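Weekly structure sync, notes
Attendees: PL (lead), two postdocs, one rotation student
Agenda item 3: pending single-chain targets
PL asked that the sequence for the first pending target be pasted directly into the notes so everyone works from the same version. It is reproduced below exactly as submitted, 83 residues in total.
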Amino acid sequence: MQGVGFRWWCKQAASALGIRGSVRNLSDGGVEVIAAGSAEGLERFDDQLRSGPAMARVDLVEVRLLAPSADHPADDGEFVILP
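Predicted structure, written out during the meeting:
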């Protein structure tokens, strides 16, 4: 869902849980989140993503495990919003 401040909400939620990674809007109207952190933090973040902020509608959350990448824009340990 785009246009409801989802990316900013996502950044705040991730930062509060010590999650690093990124969020970006996709051309099909979806949102891509890449996240890394503790198992407990990621589980809580996943729960929050499934609800979203107050004005959002979350239709689907797909979880995929990815190999760590040093090329990711958030390799400095933060959660970033990508264009």
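Discussion points:
- The longest strand covers residues 20-25.
- Strands lie at 20-25, 31-36, 79-81.
Action: rotation student to compare against the earlier draft before next sync.
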